[in-house]
Amino acid sequence: MLPRLLVRLRSGALAVLAAATAGLIPAATAAAAPAEASSAASAAYCERDLGSWFYCSRTVPDPEVAEKPPEAAGSTKEDEELARFETFKAELDRASKLAVWNPTPENVERFFVLQRAALNQSSLFSDQYRRLVWGRPDLDYSLKRPVSELGKRDWAETRQADRELFLRKISRDVGVFYVFRANCSPCKVFSPIMRDFANRYALTVRGVSVDGSENAYISNAFVDHGQLRSWGIENPATPSILLFQSSSVDPASGAARPTRVRLSDDRVVEVAPCLKPQGCLTYIGAGVMAQDDIVERIYVMLATRPGEDY
Known about the structure:
Helix 6 packs across helix 9. The N terminus is likely disordered. A 5-stranded mixed sheet has the order 3-2-1-4-7, with helices on one face. It has a two-stranded antiparallel ribbon with strand order 5-6. The protein is elongated, with a radius of gyration of 41 Å. A hairpin with a 5-residue loop joins strand 5 and strand 6. By secondary structure, the chain is of the alpha/beta class.
């Protein structure tokens, strides 16, 4: 058995030598990575059937040449402050749970001290925040939305006047469809509001009866025979208001005609265009609403962009 094993080993060694001389094992690769080649040869040798007279010893890489993990980048002052904050937050949370679960005098006192420290830090932040706003009018949001009683009153009156002025100036290009039905209790409350709304703003209000009933407050109502469905309004809610806007597209050029409205403070707003040749019909609300609420919704839909009026 031993002679045959020796023959097999010698044959294997000759085969490896022949492969190396034939260029199957590039000399440059072997010279560049001797450790990897030795490890691969050792692994191949250990996988063979060596019988009971031989054993293999796998090559262990030198710990000095083993790949070292990348060193952590140096922490900045901000990193240290964030770490302190996370530590404090964890201590406060732990103290809170211990004080609730086991309210001994020591646990309650520890939580109280940490909570007091958190409140002091919050007060410091609040004081720094207001001092910054006082000295930086460009950061003061109260200039856009006042918080004082006098400021809020003046702001609300000016805002309402601008809404009404806007609605009167675009009244030729927009109209309102009021959808109702006979067995609708809120419709009985909302119908006189819609009549007064039409009289106040000289705005065209057409009633739409979904069940063929008449309305004592809306004289120019018509019965819906599929007209709303043709506009994409399926199963309309009652009562509800639909805003109609004439097309802004110039038939000759195909471009949208801009419409601008000057408000009381000489601020100019541009009306959102309707790009459909037949006009645009959209919901602006359902249920009973106040007149001022209707005006506000029309203004927001036509004169502001999302996120602008905040």
